[in-house]
Amino acid sequence: MSQYNHRKYTKIATIDKQDRRWPNRTIDVSPLWCSVDLRDGNQALIDPMTPSQKLDMFEMLVAVGFKHIEVGFPAASQTDFDFVRKLIVENRVPEDVTIQVLTQARKELIERTYESLKGAANAIVHVYNSTSTVQREHVFKLTKDEIKQIAINGAKWVKQGAENQPETNWQFQYSPESFTGTEIDYSVEVCNAVLDVWKPTKANKAILNLPATVEVATPNVYADQIEWFCDHINNRESVIVSLHTHNDRGCGVAASELGVLAGADRVEGTLLGNGERTGNMDIVTMAMNLYSAGVDPNLDFSIMDRIIHVVEKCTQLKVHPRHPYAGELVFAAFSGSHQDAINKCLSIYEQDSTWEVAYLPIDPRDLGRDYQEVIRINSQSGKGGVAYVLEQEHGIKMPRWLQVDFSPIVQAEAENTEAEVSPDQIAELFNATYLEANKSMVLNGYQVNRSDGVERFEAGFTHNGVEHQLSGEGRGVLEAFISSLSDLLGKNLVIIEYNEHTLGHSDGSEAMTYVQLSIDAKRVCGAGKSRDILGASLAAILNAVARAH
Ligand code: KIV
Ligand code: ZN
Q1: Residue 382 banded pLDDT, cuts 50, 70, 90
Q2: Which mutation among 150, 177, 209, 278 tests ligand 1's pocket best, with the greatest number of atoms within 8 A of CB?
Q3: CA distance 369 to 328
Q4: Is residue 507's pLDDT more than 70?
Q5: Residues in contact with ligand 1 (CB, 6 Å cut-off)
Q6: Which ligand has the shortest distance to the CA of 178?
Q7: Which residues contact 482 (CB under 8 A, 6 or more apart)?
Q8: Which of 220, 268, 366, 444 has its CA 20 to 30 A from that of 299?
Q9: What's residue 151's pLDDT?
Q10: Which ligand is the nearest neighbour of the Cα of 269?
Q11: Cα dihedral angle (341, 346, 349, 354), rounded to 10 degrees?
């Protein structure tokens, strides 16, 4: 037998359920959110947040739109106690926001918790005890009835505390900690016992929060547990069923999503998933998943840069560049075919129309990001991406035939430097290759005369420091110029492609011209920029000729 012994782990326990409804549902309405950044998130940090960091985090959570915010565990930490007092005494909690605090189901801790909340307008008191088989049998060594009694006692002391401070609008929350490791019928039994004490009503509902304290099963098992719970709990209409998932198997968001399908009303989590071990459920991801499916999440993540700044400062943890929705690279496309597709879709996308852009699940601008950050150039990139960057950042609209010519030049640069090529580097490369190739030829003024439908081009011309006279005829000025150059250089020059546009929209804007010449049957591209189109075209031709040399 292998040393690496999977047999020491047990199979995932499932619920025998024949009436499963959640797989056929979709989430059409956002759940109520509760941020636990300042409690669960904070408890998991190497260095817990300082009071000023807590305040920054709280204000940012309010700005995002959270209505329930768990602000600490005041009976367990003096910093948390002081922070709760500060919020209340300094009147920092908006009217439509309810602060929540956690306490164990112990009398002295519950009393201290109420002390911290004196003077609050609204507050949720969140009481918990562990109910799982492992905790009962190995940690507490107590029977099911004894564990249930802990919950009942906690519920009584919570109720008592509220009665002693009637000036506050109270709501009660109970968590059977390690709910997912608890027999489902026993979880319901304990929660019903708590409800018997609290006697919630439709007008003042109790919150029953069902934690996957450690994620040990696939998300469908959690969904079954939630659906079973919702079907069997007493007085369901007076209960808010809340989810609290952790991410040990990497499925914290999926579990909460399926839990909402299974009937839950509320979801607890943290911004960007900080929390014990692998973290809490990431509310940014779950809310943005809803948003990208056309559901209003009632949270506003357009201030994503501020969120990242505050979260990184408070947690001292860097957001991963590939973190869903928030990471630096999550909208970036390096691959040529992806860039091409994005470029095509974005060029026909009209503001606020239905979002149909290949490779971009949502509009990056909804998170305060720019399209400019979408297409990034390295050795994997293609012509579409390079064209997009030059147009977006420098107004250069390369025709397709020039894109084909320029793309390998950028690719070679990326390969040589073994690095990403920035928009400015791409522009420098473009200028050096096409706009500034000609160092040896100068037109010293020119004249154009037209008679009988024929253009005649005459100019003084310096080539490698030697003076010449140019003279040629054609059906157009450029043809006449090309003909004069052909004669002087002794080469066969033909214009194969020609495009032009203005750079910018003002009267003083410059003209940009692109040409592809055949020079003795070899194709060469050039570009020219000038105040007038003819000047730009002549410069483009000279740049192409210079490149052929
Ligand atoms: O993960 C958990 O079980 C908790 C409870 C205290 C709600 O954080
Ligand atoms: Zn937790």
Answers
A1: confident
A2: 177
A3: 10
A4: no
A5: 40, 102, 128, 175, 177, 209, 211, 213, 244, 246
A6: 1
A7: 472, 474, 493, 494, 495, 517, 541
A8: 220
A9: 98
A10: 2
A11: 70
CA of 53 to the centre of ligand 1 (A): 22
For the CA of 209, the closest atom of ligand 1 is: 7
* Per-residue model confidence as pLDDT tens digits over 133-190: 999 999 999 999 999 999 999 999 999 999 999 999 999 999 999 999 999 999 999 9
Q: What is the pLDDT of residues 434-449, one digit of tens each?
A: 999 999 999 998 999 9
pLDDT at 260: 99
Share of the chain above pLDDT 90, in %: 92
Q: Whose CA is nearest to atom 5 of ligand 1?
A: 177
Q: Is residue 506's pLDDT more than 80?
A: no
**For the chain, what are the domain ranges?**
31-315, 336-423, 441-548
> Cα(179)–Cα(133) distance, rounded to whole angstroms?
10
Whole-model pTM: value is 0.85
Q: Which of 512, 509, 474 is nearest to 495 (CA)?
A: 474
Give how far Cα 97 sits from Cα of 247, 467, 485, Å.
27, 82, 77
By the CB criterion, residues less than 5 angstroms from ion ligand 2 are 40
Q: What is the pLDDT of residue 1?
A: 57
Pocket mutation for ligand 1, best pick of 35, 36, 40 (most atoms within 8 Å of C-beta): 40
- Mutate which of 125, 244, 245, 278 for ligand 1 pocket (most atoms within 8 A of beta carbon): 244
| Least distant ligand from the CA of 214 | 1
By DSSP bridging, strand 466-474 and strand 454-463 are: antiparallel
CATH of range 441-548; options 3.30.479.30, 3.20.20.80, 3.30.160.270, 3.40.50.2300: 3.30.160.270
Which residue's structure tokens are 């990471």? Answer: 327
Cα of 36 from ligand 1 centre, angstroms: 10
Q: Considering only 200-204, 468-472, 507-511, which range has the smallest mean pLDDT?
A: 507-511
